[in-house]
Amino acid sequence: MNKNIIRLGMICSVLFPNISLKMKLTTLFLILVLFRIQANTYSQNTKITLDLESVGVMKVFKEIEAKSEFKFLGNQDVIDKERLVSIHVKNQRIEKILTNLFQGTHITFKTIDRQIILKKEKPKIELKDPPIHNSAKQKQQHTISGTVVDIDGTPLPGANILEKGTTNGTQADFDGNFSLAVSNEEAILTISYIGFAAKEVAIKNQKNLNVVLQESADGLDEVVVVGYGTEIKRNLTSAVASVSTEELQDIPATSLSNAIAGRLAGVSISSAGGRPGTTAGISIRGATTGPLQGSSAPLYVIDNVIATKELFDLLGVNEVESVSVLKDAAASAVYGARASNGVILVTTKRGQPGKPVLTFNTSIGTSKVSRDVQHTTAYEHSLLINQAVRAGSDPLIPNSQHGTVPISDVELEYLKNNPFPNFLNDVEIDPLVKNYTANISGASDVVDYFIAGSYIDESGSLKKLNYNKSNLRANIGVKLSENLKISLTSSLATDNDYQYYWPFDSNNDNLFDGYRQAGRRGNWAPTYINGLPVANFNAFHIGDYMDQAGAGDRTRKTNLLNYTVDIDYKVPFLKGLSAGITYNNRKNINTNTTFRKPHTSYFFAADPNNQFLLTDEITGTRTRLEGGSDGNSIYKDNNTVISYQLNARLNYDYTVGDHNIKAGFIYEQWEADSDFFWVRRRNLLTTEIQQLFATSNDAEDRNGNGSEFEEGRLSYIGTLGYTFKNKYFINGSFRYDGSVRFEEENRYGFFPSVSTAWIVSEESFFNDNLDFIDFFKIRASLGLTGSDAVTSTFSYLEGFQASGSTVFGNGNNLNTTIVSRGIASTGLTWDKTKSFNIGADFEFLQNRLSTTVEVFKNKRSNLFGPRQSTVPVLIGTGLPPENYGAVDVEGFEVLTNYKNKIGNVSYNIGANIGYSKNRVTTFDESDALRDYERQLGTNTGRIFGYRNIGMVRTQSQLDELIATGYTFENQTPYIGSLIYEDIRGNSTEDPQGNTPDGVIDRNDRDVIGQYSSPPINYGITLGFTYKDFSFNAFVQGFEGHERVVPDNGRFYFDVISEGGWAHWNDAFDPVDNPDGKFPRFTRWGTNGNPNFQTSSFWLQKAGFARLKNLNISYNLPQTALQTVGVKQAKLYFNGTNLFFLYSTIKEYDPEISSGAGIPINKTYSLGLQITL
């Protein structure tokens, strides 16, 4: 054991040379502890692999001693040394090996730690029957029946049942039932099933057995979905990550992307915000386009059919079997077009052999914003305003809407004692999340079926926000003959998104402006007086927009109908050959409706001595129609996309001896047609009827437009794989893709790949020297993928479009004209990504500890972008894009997991981390750019701004600064202003301007942050099960990036009613707060105000880790359930986005890139799952 520890320590030093000595010693200590624990139970835990044919028993002893620390003791003369045996076992315990070795002999053994004591068995006079050597020669005396299930009670059809020490056995039927005649009532049965740990059961005079199998700890038999097929995890040669949705079933997520966030190494998934129905952005191994045109989004494939991100998120979690991510080109090259950024594969559920299983799952929860933006109160704001006026800031124009300054002591005391909520406080609620799912599944030897339905309803954290989604699915397969099977996959999904109307937010954003406006307005007066919205101190009353009738609303609806027919035929006259056809048809309809109406608020008289003390006397009204002309209107649009995909395939899978060959060829055809139109009608007859027919018939009140496009791709795909002795693997593939986005001579691209793997732990030299490693595989891959994401379809053709923005003659009327849509982009072809990946998979401690390491480098070339050149104005357009840009991406991923069971407690600990960085290697840039502004040779996502070097806090400091000639944008500094570093000037003698000139202007901007998006993402899982209780926690984190405080921290001081961030309560003031952290409060709209510029002062480290999900469940006792006909019932609690373990940003939710949109919700839900 000690020599193994030394070897392990040396390996750690080689693999991790940059880890500190303290960390190395800590790691070594933990390893020593683990090995000491293992030493205490060495004989129970050690597994041995033997492959011996016709050898003497003593040879077996020597092999065992050579491959382990066991020593054989006792009188070996009692052993028949001439006896020849054959033994072929892999990773078996010593007790099992020796029991089989000595079966039918008079030798017994006893194991004490590493010592094996042999002795001769004493004869038993009462034994009349001969020892059992072959069950075929025995007289069957006892029949045992039973059922084999997993820990959830699901039958395991096809499970193997073997009478120990014999060849007598059978298999479980479709319901997991079996019946076996055994030699006697003391027989022992061995039950096994792929992916589960084998189990021995003593009959002991029983007639019926209920056998529960546990999943295998190593997971090497796990089936992983790969391009156009499946493969067991053990045999993978490429970079593939997967997640089973069993661990996601209880999460009340409205989108699949939110449910899988953080669970896959190298896959960055972050939510766009807390608006109900908001999905998460997904990136595989980082951004790949940089400043050039193209897409960094992965390709989505659902049940082998090309899909979109929208369709992916419409899936219900309960209908998904697994999600696989193809990360390198060897895995994704078979998808060619659009596969440059990786592929996300989804496989939906199908029926499993057995009787019908009916499952219901329902949960209800409440949500609350995880981190609300904090704003100043009216009283705090008033103190700041008075400080600003005292400092000489521009006074505000007195009027009844905005108020007057400075604010008197009487008014300050009133605001202090009468704190009014801002609009956000008025309309923020703790919404409900309701989730209901049901499915029935099963299979016979002819038909398999899975039928499911789900409904989820989520209210927003603001009033007048709601999202709901419904799903129906039917997956049915029919085996028409022994060789012919036809399958139907069909689904219907609908979702509805409802929100208040606010003109400065769109249908698909996180309501950034509305949320920001509501947070900084409204706390100067009551929101309503006598039920009427108050106009005093409010340029607009967004609280009423969000709360009551407001100014209208927006609705978005999606209806998706999808079906796939698949025919699979096993050719009977050639073993291993199969053929099939898959046809998919999909219709996706998206509709948007926007209803706008005028909004009226009311001015109320104020106390003469206190402008904030309002009476109920109405002095005037204000009517606004935000975002348009007078009158009300209704807008509708409809986008219908109809697509089909046809695949025809041939597959060959043949094994002879130690050789396995797999080959495939696929023909694929895909076409889509999109039809879009919109209409707008103004001046509704009544706002109670929001329909197009109830509007004005005047021509000027009616308009609309529309467009249509079509596209298609044609592909030929080939795969070839060879395996030798199940430990040497080589796989190759190609895809020949054609896209109508390119002109005919450039239409097709060829995308090949090759990958190989070697299971080193299968070699005898490895087992002889590193037997403490249970599994070790190395693999490498190289491949080419492509993308056809040009700016527009048919961009290689000259085109014209209608325009209504041209003025002819002396009038001001706009006229409709025909204009060029730009110079045709001739010569465009595929952009390409060359991907190289090496990986290693390890398993230790009897397969309980597993680790995967990936290192990759991707070189993307032929990216689209316009060249830097001047086009004469008379041309009327710019240069078209060309294929010329290039971006490199490199990084690594590590995934590790530990599983174990002690008594009734099973537990697991896992972690994954991914790191990637990119570099622009080819890009045209203007010669006028400074060096620091150039993107060539740098990573994308850098943050530019001024470098803050302090703040003016005293008069003497100000005098010294002015004496140097320091100015900011021609403005002199003042007490309380930020000071910036003078980096360079604008001298004509120095084109790069690297000589400081004493003037702070745009020439002094510099790179203040390297990454605006996180280069590091990670996840940590922790779970344990004790009897019927289970606990699972998941932590997600991002690291290595920075953010600038939204709006550069500015305070909206143009009017009294616009408040700001609460951090301004610590603003510097020479009298009230001379040690303040933040600059002096001044009117932000003042030209050149230095305090509200993008600078390192407002730059924050943005790393964080949050408890993303927590699940606690309890399985109700089956004895009680059986009386009411319930097979299984589970109660559970689920929490999402519960809290931050750490976050350097305190003001807002750091996961939201915009910073100031609706925060992500934390949700607490209780649920019940019943299986019949």
UniProtKB/TrEMBL annotation:
Compartment annotation: Cell outer membrane
Keyword terms, alphabetized: Cell outer membrane, Membrane, Transmembrane, Transmembrane beta strand, Transport
Pfam family of the protein (one): Plug
Annotated ranges, domain Secretin/TonB short N-terminal: 71-119
Domain of life: Bacteria
Predominant cellular place of this UniProt entry's protein: membrane
Regions of compositional bias (Polar residues) in chain numbering: 985-995
SUPFAM superfamilies attached to this UniProt entry: Carboxypeptidase regulatory domain-like, Porins
Domain called TonB-dependent receptor plug: residue spans: 233-343
One GO cellular component term: cell outer membrane
Membrane topology: Multi-pass membrane protein
Positions of region (Disordered): 985-1005
Family label: Belongs to the TonB-dependent receptor family.
Protein name listed in UniProt: TonB-linked outer membrane protein, SusC/RagA family
Organism per entry: Maribacter ulvicola
Lineage: Bacteria, Pseudomonadati, Bacteroidota, Flavobacteriia, Flavobacteriales
